[in-house]
């Protein structure tokens, strides 16, 4: 999963790649909900594993790129903590509810993730890598609501310099 995820996040964008591949857990939980054979469960598990590999590759990068330098470590830690909370959620409630109830709960949480992720802008770094300075400024302004435009433009210049350094 990390190999295609790395290529896709640079080609499609971090956000778009995560959203496109969010069909995998939707499919996986629905398949688990209605499965009547072990093969269907294996397919569902494979789809979920593929999605986990992709999102665990892309999300730390996305979160790190959108966070201010002083908050970056905290944001990526929260991201990892939420992933682990999801696993813990399944382990804690799984033994006490039906298979269908657990699949339904996880399906609902996946839908909530998708709905809340849709309004998020793409990473300013992605836009800058593709020469879309205005889109990068708009995205960074969205993430830095309330900060003066001079500060935002200064941060955008730093992003631009970092991307130029990567090309060398």
Structure description:
The chain is mostly helical. It contains nine helices and no strands. The protein has helices at residues 2-11, 14-20, 23-34, 38-66, 72-93, 99-117, 124-129, 133-143, 149-167. The radius of gyration is 18 Å and the shape is elongated.
Shape: elongated
Helix-strand pattern: HHHHHHHHH
Strand proportion:
under 5%
Helix content: over 70%
The main sheet comes to: none
Summarize the structure.
By secondary structure, the chain is mostly helical. Helix content is 80%, strand content 0%.
Topology:
Elements lengths: L1 H10 L2 H7 L2 H12 L3 H29 L5 H22 L5 H19 L6 H6 L3 H11 L5 H19 L1
Pfam family, one: Sugar_tr
Keywords: Membrane, Transmembrane, Transmembrane helix
GO molecular function: transmembrane transporter activity
Output the keywords.
single chain, transmembrane helix, Growth Hormone, Chain: A, 2 domains, transmembrane transporter activity
């Amino acid at each position: 999963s990390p190999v295609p995820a790395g290529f896709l996040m640079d080609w499609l964008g971090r956000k778009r790649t995560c959203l496109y591949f969010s069909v995998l857990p939707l499919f996986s939980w629905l398949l688990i909900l209605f499965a009547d054979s072990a093969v269907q469960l294996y397919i569902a598990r494979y789809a979920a594993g593929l999605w986990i590999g992709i999102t665990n590759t892309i999300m730390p990068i996305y979160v790190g790129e959108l966070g201010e330098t002083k908050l970056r470590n905290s944001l990526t830690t929260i991201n990892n903590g939420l992933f682990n909370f999801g696993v813990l959620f399944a382990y804690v409630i799984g033994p006490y509810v039906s298979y269908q109830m657990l699949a339904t709960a996880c399906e609902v949480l996946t839908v909530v993730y998708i709905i809340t992720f849709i309004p998020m802008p793409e990473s300013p770094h992605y836009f800058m890598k593709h020469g879309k300075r205005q889109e990068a400024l708009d995205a960074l302004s969205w993430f830095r609501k309330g900060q003066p435009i001079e500060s935002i433009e200064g941060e955008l210049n730093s992003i631009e310099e970092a991307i130029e350094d990567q090309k060398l």
